[in-house]
Amino acid sequence: MTEGGMGAAALLAKAEEIKAKGNEFFKNGDYKKAITRFARIRAYTWVPSGEARQYGGMGANASREFQYAETETQQLTRLDQIACGNIAQCYLELGQFRKALDFNAKVCGPPCSRGSEAAERQDREAPNPDLHVKALSRSSRCLLAMGDLDGAKDCVLRALGLDPQYKPARALYKKLQEAFREHAAKQKQTLKGAFAADHAITADDRVDLEPDRLPIDEDPSDGA
């Protein structure tokens, strides 16, 4: 146990107790209450988690109050990421996709292009690969709902690259393929209509072009 603070076992036990209540709210569809419970978990996990490292809280010079064994830090970091992922899922269910992405970013990093240095680093250094894959898949769902097909594609392909058998990502990939087909069809129709409108020759145009001829009943686009 740390001096002046709770030991990792006590932190985990308390956080698990809160998580169980949050899960109950989630299953009942009470996502707002679930969010408040999952957020409370972070009060017991944020200090020894990865986020605290940027403030020097886990290094050799860290206060002895917050020094944990590596295995304890890993356990608490995992629980912290589970809490963030659960909060993200709640926001997704509520249709608050931007907030869901913000909490997903605490698990898998912010969305970035597949194959980029940032994406490769995120995927390579993920402390919990299974949670990382889930967060990528969840981010893909958010981006798809927001109409960002390219961003959704990047996330889901990264998820499948790490775990080709992850069923939610496989199902999402099929849904995304259909979304791309629909988008392409709409775009084609829009471009076709715009092109026709820009290049159509009207009856009045014919009179201007051929003043010695009177327009008759014919397709105004003939002779374009």
TrEMBL record:
<dbReference type="Pfam" id="PF13181">
    <property type="entry name" value="TPR_8"/>
</dbReference>
<dbReference type="InterPro" id="IPR011990">
    <property type="entry name" value="TPR-like_helical_dom_sf"/>
</dbReference>
<dbReference type="InterPro" id="IPR019734">
    <property type="entry name" value="TPR_rpt"/>
</dbReference>
<dbReference type="InterPro" id="IPR050754">
    <property type="entry name" value="FKBP4/5/8-like"/>
</dbReference>
<protein>
    <recommendedName>
        <fullName>Peptidylprolyl isomerase</fullName>
    </recommendedName>
</protein>
